[in-house]
Design brief:
DNA polymerase, domain 1, Beta-grasp_dom_sf, single chain, alpha+beta, 175 residues, 2Fe-2S_ferredoxin-type, 2 domains, Ubiquitin-like (UB roll), five-stranded mixed sheet
């Protein structure tokens, strides 16, 4: 069975017909030629397919495209403002936070999402007990590593990825 859906992908309204069993990742890559999210494990274990769905980070290989009809999807390619890179993208360049680059789009989208989660006061497994509700979380290395643990880098660029996220997190709340 097929269904027609409309997605706002990186600022462009796109309509596509998909099989109802098609994942968002496959709809983006195979039907809409949006190649920023990568297919790594196809099981939600590596994070290479991470996108922002209505502002929240998701593994696009785990959700059906038809359930996202009308949603806003932002990939790493859609974060820049024209020629001006998003602060997270710029920090990844500044800190040399990639090697082969395969995981980088997912890492960047996940970092943008986790920065928003931390700013909103959403706790993680390592968040200190007792912060006031909705108070921004301080992002030290342990906090960043925990929040980014769903994104794997086969090359092992973790130290530079953490440094890039620290660069942005210390720059201010308007990321």
């Amino acid at each position: 069975m097929e269904a027609e859906i409309t997605l706002d992908v990186d600022g462009s309204r796109r309509t596509v017909t998909v099989d109802t069993r098609t994942t968002l990742l496959d709809a983006l890559r195979d039907r809409l030629a949006v190649t920023a999210p990568k297919k790594g494990c196809d099981h939600g274990q590596c994070g290479a397919c991470t996108v922002l769905l209505d502002g929240r980070r998701v593994n696009s290989c785990l959700i059906f495209a038809v359930a996202q009809d009308g949603a806003e999807v932002t990939t790493a390619a859609g974060l820049a403002d024209g020629e001006t890179l998003h602060p997270v993208q710029q920090a990844f360049l500044d800190q040399d936070a990639f090697q082969c680059g395969y995981c980088t789009p997912g890492q960047i989208c996940s970092a943008v999402g986790m920065l928003a989660e931390a700013a909103a006061g959403q706790p993680s497994a390592v968040t200190a007990a007792g912060p006031p509700a909705n108070a921004a979380t301080t992002l030290d290395e342990d906090e960043i590593r925990e929040r980014m643990s769903g994104n794997l880098c086969r090359c092992g660029a973790y130290a530079n990825i953490v440094a890039a996220i620290r660069q942005v997190s210390t720059a201010g709340p308007d990321v």
